[in-house]
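User: Let's play a game. I give you a shape written as tokens, and you guess the letters that built it. Ready? Here's round one.
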């Protein structure tokens, strides 16, 4: 496959992930770490984490020219992050900021087999990252600007979305596609008390692609429902939201609200169910660097992104870890978009890259060049399910994707 000439800038949150590996035997849904107990573990995997690293390195593995913009400190963890990024390509660290005398962000990732992951997180230097830290020179010639995890970056949520909204508007005026990913706020943290509907109303009118999870969306748009689901779920995790509330009616209602707040295209990550997409009538300015026509169709036009409703089921894999799965899924989507893909093939590529990601314990080492991803898809890679999401949905055999009743192409 010919490499993309278009490039993507990934900015926002970055940290060092410390991932203890669990024994190979499965853990029950009621498993808990109890005080005073000793648990034998495997070696710890140390990897870069956060949207900058996870999405950025996934794009790099896929063959997309990528610039990273994150902030670390001049400490042991910061040095480790830069060394890891440099080991993939020396140019990946050129846009990174090193802050003197601060602390680098880290996460201890608890990711048992067959259970959703949990995080012990310190924001570190991410809290002092400011919109003015986004350097304009690396943006020259870029096609898309992606920003990740503002709920974990103090300057970007305490101002009610003013500086991020203004940054996105400036970038759109330079003809860049703007993309935003979120993270789930700690309900007990300052980010947990933010009026997120007002925040989104300031930011989303300048966002072409809004890419949150169903959990994050419920937390921000319908906190009462989100809290009631956690209360009803005996395991005390977000698993109930993914398993019980991926109903297309709920996804559609939440996505319609996000479109009303200003986003052009909403893509909700719905865990093992896959991805859900709903787009408005202002479309998406797609790239022109079409992938190899032997692997994917030629580039699409803006009209292909108007008023679409799609759901892409996941591919079947042996899961080694779910760290960074959502970030890698986003990378697959963004790589397809700058390659000129339409929404159906972009969604399929996204869930395929996400599936590759979970085959490794860390976020990105399971990802290969996009040509290899599509060879695997065309080799008959099975999906997790082919059951219709709800009455009125139709199956597009050519792409292996569901089209909703609100899809203009149905």
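Assistant: Ready! My guess for every position:
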């Amino acid at each position: 496959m010919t490499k993309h000439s278009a490039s993507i800038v990934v900015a926002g949150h970055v940290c060092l992930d410390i991932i203890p590996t669990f024994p190979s035997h499965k853990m029950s849904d009621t498993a808990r770490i109890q005080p005073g107990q000793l648990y034998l573990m495997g070696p710890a995997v140390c990897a870069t984490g956060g949207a900058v690293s996870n999405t950025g390195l996934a794009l790099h593995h896929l063959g997309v020219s990528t610039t990273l913009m994150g902030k670390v400190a001049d400490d042991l963890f910061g040095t480790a992050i830069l060394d890891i990024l440099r080991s993939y390509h020396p140019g990946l660290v050129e846009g990174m900021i090193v802050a003197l005398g601060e602390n680098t962000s880290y996460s201890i990732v608890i990711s048992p087999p067959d259970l959703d992951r949990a995080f012990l997180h310190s924001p570190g230097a991410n809290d002092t990252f400011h919109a003015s830290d986004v350097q304009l020179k690396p943006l020259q010639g870029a096609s898309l600007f992606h920003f990740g995890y503002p709920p974990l970056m103090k300057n970007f949520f305490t101002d009610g979305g003013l500086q991020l909204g203004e940054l996105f508007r400036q970038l759109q005026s330079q003809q860049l596609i703007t993309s935003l990913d979120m993270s789930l706020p700690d309900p007990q943290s300052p980010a947990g008390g933010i009026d997120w509907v007002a925040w989104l109303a300031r930011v989303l009118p300048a966002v072409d692609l809004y890419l949150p999870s169903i959990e994050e969306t419920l937390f921000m748009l319908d906190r009462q429902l989100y809290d009631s689901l956690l209360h009803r779920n005996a395991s005390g995790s977000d698993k109930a939201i993914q398993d019980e509330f991926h109903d297309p009616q709920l996804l559609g209602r939440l996505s319609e609200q996000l479109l009303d707040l200003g986003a052009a295209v909403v893509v909700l990550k719905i865990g093992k169910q896959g991805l859900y997409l709903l787009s408005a009538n202002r479309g998406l300015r797609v790239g022109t660097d079409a992938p190899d026509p032997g692997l994917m169709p030629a580039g699409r036009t803006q009209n292909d992104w108007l008023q679409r409703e799609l759901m892409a089921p996941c591919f079947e894999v042996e899961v080694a870890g779910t760290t960074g799965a959502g970030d890698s899924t986003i990378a697959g989507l963004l790589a397809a978009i700058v390659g000129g893909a339409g929404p159906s093939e972009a969604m399929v590529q996204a869930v395929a890259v996400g599936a590759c990601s979970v085959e490794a314990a860390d976020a990105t080492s399971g990802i290969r060049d996009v040509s290899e991803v599509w060879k695997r898809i065309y080799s008959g890679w099975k999906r997790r399910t082919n059951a219709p999401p709800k009455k009125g949905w139709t199956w597009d055999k050519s792409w292996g994707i569901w089209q909703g009743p609100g899809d203009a192409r149905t």
